[in-house]
UniProtKB/TrEMBL annotation:
Top-level taxon of the source organism: Bacteria
Keyword annotations: Transcription, Transcription regulation
Name assigned to this protein: YafY family protein
PANTHER family with a match to the protein in the record: PROTEIN PAFC, PTHR34580
Organism annotation: Streptomyces siamensis
Boundaries of every HTH deoR-type domain copy: 29-88
Pfam family, one: HTH_11
InterPro entries from the UniProt entry: CBASS_pafABC_assoc_protein, DeoR_HTH, HTH_11, PafC-like, WCX_dom, WH-like_DNA-bd_sf, WH_DNA-bd_sf, WYL_dom
Length: 347
């Protein structure tokens, strides 16, 4: 039976205090004990085997850690049996302490504000960080504050152009309420919108673009948020595939996009004076880095294009890039160049 519970017990715990004489906690064990403490505080009762899986240790190690927490003054107890688990005394809370210097700094390395603004969380983010800053160990606060002013992560691409406004409110409602969605969606290159009923897993921001990851007829699908013309949350509960989480569905879809079969291998030669610019602009399609011995005016490179027509972008380099193979790509570029010449040759 658990011990009697006090009301609103809030304690700042040092997990290294109160241990038996001679007990020494290394940094790994200290972090693990704090992780257990915060998991129990967040989740309530948690089975020992689940904690073991989460922290990648044995169940026996978890029980030893629970004993160490108890010896340090944390009111934690374990109940055996089918419905048992490890739990904190009701009403016990601990402040966010025990963070290392690197962990404190990591919390304040922020992505560009666009992601939070799209979710309506800009104000909430600022408030949360102020609370975390107040709860940090005093020696780590200056470093965390400096980090927030010196490091910024911007996930958007250079010269990506203005992105259309995206209303994520309805998509968020479906994701967080575990409800099905009815979408009116326009595919790329299709002027007509189509209606789909989907089972959402969540939202993903990829290079500044938001995507809805969802199942349609029990198969994973990717919907670009800025192509959603209308969305309605349905009263029906979501029907996700058992055991599949957002990260799992996203990994499958990501691989489908990146490993899409087909395409055309294009061999080109590039003037050395334009090589740096060529490599930067074609990084996404570069099949392998060119071997450059530092001699001669030309360097040979190989690209992987999705289709013959995609190679037209190479014409932007003028005579600084020449396609060597395959013949159909050379013919496509020659025809395009001739058409452009005809436009400018007129009166």
């Amino acid at each position: 039976m658990p011990p009697a519970s006090p009301d609103n017990l809030t304690v700042s715990v040092n997990i290294c205090e109160g241990l038996p004489a001679g007990a020494i906690l290394g940094p790994v064990k200290s972090d693990r004990l704090l992780s257990i403490l915060l998991l129990l505080q967040t989740r309530g009762r948690v089975p020992a085997h689940e904690l073991a899986d989460r922290l990648e240790v044995s169940v026996r190690t978890i029980y030893r850690d629970v004993e160490a927490l108890s010896a340090s003054g944390v009111p934690v107890y374990a109940e055996r049996g089918r419905h048992g688990g490890i739990e904190l005394l009701a009403g016990f809370r601990t402040d966010v302490t025990g963070l290392t210097a690197d962990e404190s700094r990591a919390l304040f390395i922020l992505a560009a504000q666009g992601a939070h603004a799209a979710l309506g969380l800009d104000a909430a983010l600022g408030s949360a960080l102020r609370k975390v800053m107040a709860a940090l160990p005093a020696p780590h606060r200056p470093a965390a504050e400096v980090t927030s002013r010196r490091v910024l992560v911007d996930a958007t691409r250079w010269k990506g152009g203005p992105q259309p406004a995206v209303d994520l409110d309805v998509l968020q409602d479906a994701v967080f309420s575990d409800r099905r969605l009815r979408l009116r969606y326009r595919h790329s290159g299709d002027p007509e919108a189509h209606t789909y009923t989907v089972d959402p897993y969540g939202l993903v921001s990829k290079a500044g673009i938001w995507y809805l990851v969802a199942d349609r007829r029990a198969k994973p699908r990717l919907f670009r948020a800025d192509r959603v013309r209308a969305a309605t949350v349905l009263p029906d509960p979501v029907r996700r595939r058992p055991g599949v989480e957002l990260a799992d569905a996203w990994e499958v879809l990501r691989r489908q996009v990146e490993e899409r079969p087909g395409g055309v291998d294009v061999t080109v030669r590039v003037r050395r004076s334009r090589l740096d610019l060529f490599l930067r602009l074609n990084a996404a399609t570069l099949a392998e880095l060119p071997e450059d011995d530092g001699t001669g005016d030309w360097v040979v490179a190989r690209l992987s294009c999705g289709a013959v027509r995609e190679a037209r972008t190479l014409l932007a380099f003028g005579d600084a890039v020449e396609v060597l193979s395959p013949p159909e790509v050379r013919a496509e570029l020659a025809a395009t160049a001739a058409a452009v010449r005809a436009v400018y040759a007129g009166d």
